[in-house]
Automatic annotation (TrEMBL):
Name the UniProt record assigns to this protein: F-box domain-containing protein
A Pfam family reported for this protein in Swiss-Prot or TrEMBL: F-box-like
Family matches, as SMART domains: FBOX
Annotated F-box domain residues: 320-370
Length: 486
């Protein structure tokens, strides 16, 4: 079948970041019929209108040209850098795992490579290999912050590109796995290592596995290993993104859910390429938006809303009204863990909760706690990514400057870090969080956070119970056959 795409085990996008077209030109009639029938099977004009819109989405020039309707931040080269992280065993013969006996090597000596130039689940060039065992994330004392620093240090680019294969293709039954470099970092940073049990002794060796070693064993010790069709892990719910992998991950359309946005746009009288944004929404293209663009304030920020925040400053947690018998501190601890939609749903359950939760200063307090320590923690940048920290800071300063004006000088703003900006009494938290909800980038970030939390749960089960299926032999037996990049 020539070449094909395989998907990142965390985000479910191909190395290049996924689709760049709505659909294949040969499928236009079929999709137009489906969409028209779902919206209104009795309206004969609908089919033509939708077919026209779909036709407008096909790039006119060459295969390689980027469609002009493709939003910034989607598809190659905007979704991510070209660099991926491959982990597993790369033998001297063409970078494959040595197969001189049954089973696969265990995770104890896993190699970790920064790789580029993907090709059907494999990678053709190596930028750098980390020293084996350099990034141990063992439970004894290693805090999340320290792990991030280790991750960063172990990936200082050497600048050299070596023409070496790193085989990871699921289609070739390789146990090696790969992730976008950003996804690798998110997983390292966002898993709550303190909350996980200590690893069980899986082998006679006393030494604990590295982060990469554990991830490799988790992916390969499940009863259901990676799916040959989707190339993803069946124990993780990827929310349908895998449907976009046909032979290649070229088209948004297979991820579609419903026709809500298209129906609305048609109702408004939109036609042709003006319907494409609505189609992108129904096709859930936001799952392929780069997850590190923090929203900027619109110029016309609602000043009355921001006045609410500044006129009701929070003095202390004890200022929160009591509800039933729950102490305030406990209530706040609970509410900060609630996903935002659940919090709003909760506020509609009774009058006293309604009054409490929608009270601006209380809501502000919950949001602050949720961002720093609770369900909205994904809004924070990953500290090992300097670009993320800078990008987030820039966005937060814009929000603060829109509302604060004379409250803080520019000098104060420039010196403030992310947390200081976020907890600033003037910061328009509610408006900012609402803007995050309207941002494709932030919603994809939230999706990735959710995926990491799923991995965290699987990780916990692996640490408690070990392998679901033992497919391993001691990797020490093959050390001399490996190709280690110096
Ligand atoms: Zn990824």
């Amino acid at each position: 079948m020539g070449s094909w795409d395989e998907l990142c085990i965390l985000c479910g996008a191909s190395p290049e970041g996924g689709p760049h077209d709505l659909l294949h030109s040969g499928d236009i009639d079929e999709y137009a019929r489906q969409l028209a029938d779902e919206i209104d099977p009795y309206n004969d004009d609908l089919f033509d209108t939708i077919r026209n819109a779909l036709k407008c989405s096909i790039p006119q020039k060459t295969l390689l040209s980027r469609a002009e309707w493709l939003p910034d931040g989607m598809a190659h080269p905007q979704y991510c850098s070209d660099v991926c992280v491959a982990l597993g065993y790369f033998g001297k013969e063409e970078g494959t795992v040595p197969r001189d006996r049954d089973g696969i090597p265990d995770g104890r000596n896993v190699q970790v490579r920064r790789v580029i130039d993907s090709s059907s689940g494999d990678f053709e060039r190596v930028l750098q290999e980390t020293v084996v065992g350099n990034e141990n994330v063992s439970a004894d004392g290693g805090s999340a912050e320290e792990d991030e620093v280790l991750g960063e240090e172990s990936f200082v680019a050497s600048g050299r590109k070596l023409d070496l294969y790193s085989m990871c293709a699921v289609a070739h039954e390789s146990p090696n796995i790969w992730l976008h470099e950003r996804c690798y970092q998110y997983m390292q940073s966002w898993i709550d290592w303190q909350s996980l049990p200590r690893p069980t002794a899986l082998s006679s060796s006393e030494e604990e596995l590295s982060f990469a070693g554990e991830l490799y064993e988790i992916a390969n010790s499940r009863k259901q290993t990676r799916d040959r069709d989707t190339t993803l892990l069946p124990c993780i719910d990827y929310d349908g993104i895998e449907a976009t992998l046909e032979q290649w991950q070229d088209h948004f359309a297979p991820a579609r859910r419903g026709t809500k946005y298209l129906a609305r746009a048609l109702h408004e009288g939109l036609q042709g390429k003006d319907l494409i944004p609505a189609l992108l929404k129904d096709f859930r293209a936001w799952m392929f938006m780069r997850p590190d663009v923090w929203p900027k304030p619109l110029e016309a920020i609602d000043t009355t809303a921001t006045t609410v925040f500044t006129t009701f400053p929070i003095n202390s947690i004890s200022a929160i009204p009591l509800i039933d018998t729950l102490p305030n501190e406990l209530l706040l601890l609970i509410l900060r863990e609630l996903p935002l939609p659940s919090l709003l749903a909760l506020s509609s359950t009774c009058r006293s909760l309604r009054a409490l939760i929608t009270e601006p200063s209380f809501m502000d307090c919950v949001l602050k706690e949720a961002i720093l320590r609770g369900s909205l923690k994904w809004i924070l940048p990953v500290s090992s990514f300097k670009n993320e920290v800078q990008g987030c800071c820039t966005s937060l300063r814009l929000w603060l400057s829109v509302v604060s004006g004379s409250c803080q000088s520019d000098g104060d703003l420039i010196d403030s870090n992310v947390n200081a900006l976020l907890v600033s009494p003037q910061f328009p938290r509610l408006t900012f969080v609402r803007a995050c909800w309207e941002s494709d980038s932030m919603m994809n970030r939230k999706r990735l956070w959710g995926l990491v939390k799923q991995f965290e749960a699987v990780w916990g089960s692996y640490r408690l119970h070990g392998w679901e299926v033992d497919r391993f032999y001691p990797s020490a037996e093959i050390l001399d056959t490996l190709q280690i990049v110096e």
